[in-house]
Amino acid sequence: MLKKLRLDENSRVFLDTTFILPFFQLDIAVEAFSLKEFKDFLIRATEIHVSELSIFEAKAKIFRLSKKNAAYTYALRSFGENLAMLREDEKIIFHPYTKADDVYFNLISSMNQNLDSFDIIILAQASNIGLLITEDKEILGLRQQEKFKKEPFLGKLLIKRWKELIRT
Question: CA-based, 20 to 30 A from 107: which of 46, 73, 82, 151?
Fold first, then answer.
């Protein structure tokens, strides 16, 4: 059951790469994660935002796994079909890397945070959405930093782990 953070009719959520993996037939090892609760959560969202970067990361992960374990071959072969279904869903909005994202990238990177470039891109693209769901420790660590919280552009972004969204 969803916790205090309720999704209302204007709710938008940005999913970090981890949370798009189930769409591509990969299980995720996230504390308290259940596919049913995840589906319920997404049904309540009015918009589901995803970075194009996450699509590339998901494909690379499945490719890497399929080289080690043949059980992932079906997921690799089905990737394009699954992607096509996501792109057809009007609720799902894909973010290509834009000039505005680059401006935000430069702003975030100038803050001397311990983030890699992929983390910075996700933050830049999620910043105007309102809610980012991630399990990335570096991104989650920003929530404690005054510099991040006081930045007008970034301070309004809610960054949540999955377990923070559900009743335990």
Answer: 46
